[in-house]
Amino acid sequence: MWRHSIKPRPDWRDKVVEQGLVFPMTDMPDGTERPYWNESAWYEVTMDEVLHLEEVTEELYAMCKHAAAVMAAGDRFSDAQLGLAPGTLPLVQESLKRDDLSVYARFDLVWNGVEPKMLEINGDTPTGLLESAVIQWNWLEEIFPDADQWNSVHDRLVKWWGDQRAAGRFPGNEAHFFNSGAETTGEEAMTVAYLRDTAAMSGLATYGHEIEDLGWESAQRAFVDWGGRKIRTAFKLYPWEDMLDDQFGRYLLAGTEREPVQWIEPIWKTMLSTKAILPILWELYPDHPNLLPAYFDGPGDLLEWVAKPLHGREGSNIRIHTISGDDHVHDGPYDTDTMVYQEWSPLPSYEGNRAVIGSWIVDGAAAGMMVRESDGPITDYYARFVPHAIGTSPRPDDDTIKQWLTE
Amino acid sequence: MSNRRMRSTGITLGLTALVAASLTGCSSDDDDQPEYAAICVDPQTEQRTDDGNCKDEREYNGAGSGAGFFWFYMATRGGALVPPIGGRFNGGSGTYTIPRTSQGGGTGSPTIKRGGLDTKGGDIGTISRGGFGKSGKGSSGG
């Protein structure tokens, strides 16, 4: 992988906003703002690199599903140990047994050119989707119209909705889409709007609003939307662990619903959105080339390590310990009662930009990548999204693409 | 073996564009749901009747409106009681006047659905809201 500088399109900001990226800038702590969408650079990868990353991504995902079943079995953890509301794990077991529908997940990988290593998986509420699926694609169309990109995210999303619809998995051929009003930059509202578009393209009727307006109808024992319509299938960009802690979570935990809502992502994804999965993976697959050693109770024999809270997001509450000196601590709002210790694997630096690879899973298959870069050692809220292209790879024709999608 | 997508001709993301516009200062109404639902009633007998009897959108203004059948509007967020066909409706749970203001603080006309409610009626029950969300933490995966 290489990083190239390039001149941004003069009207890039208007363009990406129009395409849905209403948060093109990040407000910095000193009051200035800086592009979140950074097209003053692009990353070049080779086709061989892409093929390897795809393979690794799919293997890791299979391992994560295995780990989820182990974690939910009940003999290993209590709900409390995983920071989940009492009664969650039995529901996770049932959800796994039913093989509840799941559409997407995102790995964060550190990749120094040899074997990519899994930093974590965001299996419940991954973001960066619109930037990956739409914005960087449109950038490629305009800047390198003959080049290719590792990016079938959009196609696979539309296909997934269509396939599940054809299989009769959406009662009433409809789905609701909920984002949290707590997030005010528009990032989550846009992510959900985009997903709703992909569902609508498959012919589903879609409804949506903020999850705060969702209602509980006691006579029907059903969740209803703000218009009183019964919710049958619902995509939510809102973490399961919070849902279960919320007031309405008790209806889920107690099984009060007459016809339970089919939530996407499903409740088993709680296992794929906790750092607890990292030590479990290391136990199940010791010395796996794409894993970093990770432990629960302390750093063990690790000389340099990162301590991560179970449910931290965007790099919050992380502590880095290196041999050379002071610990690097990243403050944040998350509960740090339980920490997971993972070997410290510094992100590669491209002219001072530390790049992390986000690798998408859609419908169980590797679907594309996104690169975010930071100035510091931790990929956090201030990270910048940088587009990528596959060098030396001419575009496949339409027939080839169709064939890939069915493989 | 796979990578990249289709979109050789570009795609139209209708809702994405709409929400983007609304979040960047233009207004948009995202009307998925009727804010009001109407049942067809006979004001003389105070009974609900078949939707088909309500042929138009005339408003009932008391005895001067003459006999006949009229739409009776109830806010869908209000958790009103819907009587079965032939049952008496609660005049306090709605209005004969076509609602003109939006419920959700939105601008423009409210969405109204006339007819189509369960003929057997039913207790819409009490809808409680606000039981999810506002945990104060963003939910992005970062």
Automatic annotation (TrEMBL), chain A:
Cited InterPro entries: GSPS_pre-ATP-grasp-like_dom, PreATP-grasp_dom_sf
Glutathionylspermidine synthase pre-ATP-grasp-like domain residues: 12-390
Residues in coiled coil: none
Keywords: ATP-binding, Ligase, Magnesium, Metal-binding, Nucleotide-binding
Keyword Cell cycle: no
Ligase is among the record's keywords: yes
MF terms (GO), sorted A to Z: ATP binding; ligase activity; metal ion binding
UniProt xrefs under Gene3D superfamilies: 3.30.1490.330
Protein name per UniProt: Glutathionylspermidine synthase
Origin species: Kribbella italica
Organism taxonomic ancestry: Bacteria, Bacillati, Actinomycetota, Actinomycetes, Propionibacteriales
From TrEMBL, chain B:
Superkingdom of the organism of origin: Bacteria
Signal peptide: 1-22
Annotated stretches, region: Disordered: 93-142
Keyword vocabulary terms for this entry: Signal
The protein, known as: tRNA-dihydrouridine synthase
Bias kind Gly residues: ranges: 122-142
